[in-house]
Write a structure and sequence with these properties.
With about 90 residues, this protein is α/β, with parallel strands linked by helices. The chain is built from five helices and four strands. A four-stranded mixed sheet has the order 1-2-3-4.
Length: about 90
């Protein structure tokens, strides 16, 4: 077990952090289906992006644009852990 001691300010910031993990196989329509979740997100992680992109019709730019319409301040990261690739 890893035990980490955090300063009080950082601990408060981490406890009020909202992240949304969107997997490519779920579809690119999730932002419009669940706007409350995306509006409250501090970070949006789009996962399985490179591995599944060739197999599925998923418009990453649509997801980014829809998310930013609801929440212009959201940080968006496109990641793929299998290939260890990612970009902002």
């Amino acid at each position: 077990m890893l035990k980490v001691s955090l300063p009080c300010k950082l601990r408060r910031w981490l406890t009020s952090f909202n992240a949304v993990l969107l997997s490519v196989p779920e579809g690119d329509d999730k932002v419009s289906k669940y706007p409350v979740m995306f509006r409250a997100a501090d970070v949006l992680l789009i996962a399985k992006s490179f591995a599944c992109a060739a197999l599925l019709t998923f418009d990453i730019e649509r997801v980014k644009n829809d998310a930013r319409k609801l929440n212009p301040k959201v940080d968006i990261f496109v990641i793929d852990s299998k290939n260890r690739r990612g970009h902002r």
